[in-house]
Amino acid sequence: MTFVENRAVISGVGQSAIGRKLGRSGWDLGVEAALNAIADAGLTPDDIDGVASYPGPVGAEGGFVGATTHDIRNALGLKSSWYTSGVETAGQIGTLLDACAMVASGRATHVLAFRSVWESTAQAAMGRAKAITGHMTRASGHTAWRLPFGAASAANWIGMYAQRYMHEHGLTREQMGNVAINARRNAALNPNAIFTAPMTMEDYLGARMISWPFGLFDCDIPADGATAIIISRREATAGLRRPPLTIESAGSAMYERHSWDQRNDLTTMAAHDVARAMWAGTSLTAADVDFATLYDGFTYLTLQWIDAFGFAEHGKAGVFMEDLDRFSKDGDFPINTHGGQLSGGRLHGYGFVHEACVQLWGDAGERQITKDVEVAAVGVGGGPEAGCMLLRREG
Amino acid sequence: MTSPPAFRLLPEVTPETEAFWTGGETGELRIYRCRSCRHWFHPPTPACFRCRSREVGPEVASGRATVAAYTVNQHPWFDGFPPPYVVAIVELDDEPGVRLTTNLVDCAIEDVVVGMPVEVVFEHRDDVWLPLFRPVAA
Ligand SMILES: [Zn+2]
């Protein structure tokens, strides 16, 4: 009952420069992150025989597609026995999880998995709203059910889930604010974070409304940056730079229709499906988790992951988040020690994997978690998009 | 009647969605229903996701619904569609759990609550009739 028979491990990670309006293409950033991750693993580009990325060449503007799988293959002349990209997958890490199965089954030995965005630079010229809708003449696919009603952004779609959770479970804006304040406090110790000035509850509550119950500080920040993760077959990691990290379990399940408004219980998300699958694949439990990196494209999504993983009883995620001291690097349950996407920048999912690995290797510098950490829960995605992993450092 | 925005990004009309987007021409909210198990479902698909019957198609729903969740949008996403406006998920009275994302109109923002009974009203633009919802008159 182990994930891909315990044959896939994480052997290296890397990031590009991260920031606002770097003036560099997502392709360029993607290459930088890839080379950094390959070197971090102690490999060379010639060792990489598989590539996986999110989302692939989808029709989205505004820097959402920083680099595709073929962009990076072509730039680095990678000879691949297997490669993929995809958007109909388990959150932004869906194809990374597929890569684990591929190395386990022998289709590849060392896979480069990555996500690159350059939304800050690309949207500086056109503005975020135009980036979302400016290129469309008609709304199609799932957006046909939302854009005609002015529901253009995930802030609208996820805002409605948050409102329903408030209605059913008494979640408050202050409790969501704690997610933003935790991210900001932790970001102050991350040299790559974008927003590091302290944030008070007053700042949070006083920010302009985007879509009730979300104000400006409930929403993550468009950024430029790429993240790459090397997935290797366990036997192939002897002699490499780092002790491999075990992927103890993972979740890529979806038990309902893929939808932004038809899920049976509007106070849960696809996060609950993947978390259930992840826990079914391990003898570890929520009590064994030392720290967590939990997606925060919106504050509410971190609370959803707390709810989904069972760190708090269903409906109590807001109450769980109240004692902020617990979630810093010095606390008993650090959350988003890098500042998440809310303050660290919207690296779109992969940043949470990167931070979990860096912490497990003890390489987080000033923000390294004080207590010894062996097990990390990583939850990525929101709404019907979700994938998760339980990572473990051995010995 | 709340005055409609100058602009709405309209939906692409497909074989599956045509009945939904054009039902307003005759004042009908047309929702897919399975002829085998008789469950309603949305959005339209060429098979019933519950019983897998292919005998599915649009039927006229009551047009009555209940607010399940809402958000008050304050950000200008579109030129010609100024905030604030209410986006809501409403649950059809015909079958709980069958939901539409829509706008609430003819209703003060501060009066919107979960559980509020609403009824369909159509806004015609080009080749589509958008189903919006307003409070049921007391
Ligand atoms: Zn049926």
CATH superfamily of the largest domain in chain A: Thiolase/Chalcone synthase
Number of domains of chain B: 1
Global Rg of chain B:
15 Å
Mean pLDDT of chain A: 96
Give the neighbour order of strands across the main sheet of chain B.
6-5-4-7-8
Ends apart, CA distance between termini of chain A: 21 Å
The helical percent of chain B reads under 10%
Poorly predicted residue ranges of chain A: none
For this entry, give a set of tags.
heterodimer; A: 395 residues; alpha/beta; Peroxisomal Thiolase, Chain A, domain 1; 9-stranded mixed sheet; two-stranded antiparallel ribbon; globular; B: 138 residues; mainly beta; OB fold (Dihydrolipoamide Acetyltransferase, E2P); 5-stranded antiparallel sheet; 3-stranded antiparallel sheet; binds zinc ion
Structure description:
The complex is a heterodimer of chains A (395) and B (138). Chain A is α/β, with parallel strands linked by helices. Chain A folds into 2 domains: 3-124 and 223-245, Peroxisomal Thiolase, Chain A, domain 1; 153-217 and 246-393, Peroxisomal Thiolase, Chain A, domain 1 (3-Layer(aba) Sandwich). Chain A has 13 helices and 11 strands. Chain A has a 9-stranded mixed beta sheet with strand order 3-2-4-7-1-8-11-10-9, with helices on both faces. Chain A is globular, with a radius of gyration of 19 Å. The mean pLDDT of chain A is 96. Chain B contains 1 helix and 8 strands. The longest helix of chain B is centred in the first third of the chain and has 5 residues, at 18-22. Chain B has 138 residues and is mainly β. Chain B has a 5-stranded antiparallel beta sheet with strand order 6-5-4-7-8. Chain B has a 3-stranded antiparallel beta sheet with strand order 2-1-3. Chain B has one domain (18-135): Beta Barrel (OB fold (Dihydrolipoamide Acetyltransferase, E2P)), CATH 2.40.50.840. At the A-B interface, helix 5, helix 6 and strand 5 of A face strand 4, strand 5, strand 6 and strand 8 of B. Bound molecules: zinc ion. The site of zinc ion has 8 residues of chain B, from loops.
